[in-house]
Write a structure and sequence with these properties.
Radius of gyration: 13 Å
Keywords: Chloroplast, Membrane, Photosynthesis, Photosystem II, Plastid, Reaction center, Transmembrane, Transmembrane helix
InterPro entries: PSII_PsbJ, PSII_PsbJ_sf
Protein name: Photosystem II subunit J
Length: 30
């Protein structure tokens, strides 16, 4: 695994990118 020291953690990127995606899917299937 690459050293993420001083960088944005991959899980944080996934969370920030995943929230609007999940929200869009939720609205789409609402």
């Amino acid at each position: 695994m690459a050293d993420t020291t001083g960088r944005i953690p991959l899980w944080l990127i996934g969370t920030v990118a995943g929230i609007p995606v999940i929200g869009s899917i939720g609205i789409f299937f609402y």
